[in-house]
Amino acid sequence: MKIAVGADHGGFELKNIIRDHLIGKGHEVIDCGTYSKESVDYPDFALVVALAVARQIAEVGIMIDGAGIGSCMLANKVPGIRASVCNDLYTAGNAREHNCANVLTLGSMVVGPGYAKQIVDKWLSIPWTTEQRHIRRIDKITNVENSFQSVESINQLLKNAMQISNSKDTKNEKETGKSLIGSLEAEKIIKSGIRKFKPESSQILTPLARDILKDNGVYIIE
């Protein structure tokens, strides 16, 4: 697996330990810095890691700062990134299995080197979910992310959110909403060898899924 790793000065030493650990496991590692204990700003390096993943230069990313929180916040500003702070084994597994996390952030002031290695190994060992309930929720996250592209789409997003929150009958959401085909489903379509795809009347493609299909030569029948 190709993995981008990064850190600020607080995570520098742990980053080097994790980097060497991953190389020893046979992974290809892209070291995004920092390369010394000289004080730097974690957003700069978290951005490099997140962009490496978003642009598919790396399959996943690992970023380390003092607590892991700030780097997670920054990484999640990058479209296509689902970063998770995992300073224990349970959240490491949950982030991958339930949330399809593609960037892991760690706190060097929270976990020691030995436990950090275990967290990284656990996070990498858990495959992304194939359960529809989790895919549906991830698609909703992606849809919200893609909705913040214009004033009109933001207003519509707020309107939809208010309608759902004001509804006394939770069935209304199921009755009025369409199922979303997200990036994971798009990958399945590509792997199936389909060259032409027409969503059913009860389905809509998320913008990210649409781009993935088009980039892979799948003709979308409107």
Describe what this molecule looks like in 3D.
- By secondary structure, the protein is an alpha/beta fold.
- It has two domains: 124 residues, Sugar-phosphate isomerase, RpiB/LacA/LacB (Ribose 5-phosphate Isomerase B, Chain: A); 89 residues, no CATH class.
- Helix content is 50%, strand content 15%.
- Helix 2 crosses helix 3 and helix 9 runs parallel beside helix 10.
- The two termini are 36 Å apart.
How would you sum up the global shape? elongated
| Tally of discrete structural domains | 2
Main beta sheet strand tally, sense and closure: 5 strands, parallel
Oligomer: single chain
The tally of beta strands, per DSSP, is 9
Taking the alpha carbons of the first and last residues, their distance comes to 36 Å
Report the CATH architecture of the largest domain. Answer: 3-Layer(aba) Sandwich
Determine the strand fraction and express it as a percent band: 15-25%
- Strand arrangement within the widest β-sheet reads 2-1-3-5-4
Quick synopsis:
The chain has 222 residues and is α/β, with parallel strands linked by helices. The chain has ten helices and nine strands.
Sequence-ordered SSE layout with sheet pairings:
Blueprint: E1 2-7, H1 12-24, E2 28-31, H2 42-54, E3 60-65, H3 69-75, E4 83-85, H4 89-97, E5 103-107, H5 113-125, H6 132-147, H7 151-166, H8 171-176, E6 179-181, H9 183-191, E7 196-197, E8 203-205, H10 207-215, E9 219-220
Parallel strand pairs: 1-2, 1-3, 3-5, 4-5, 6-8, 7-9
Helix pairs in contact: 1-5, 2-3, 4-5, 9-10
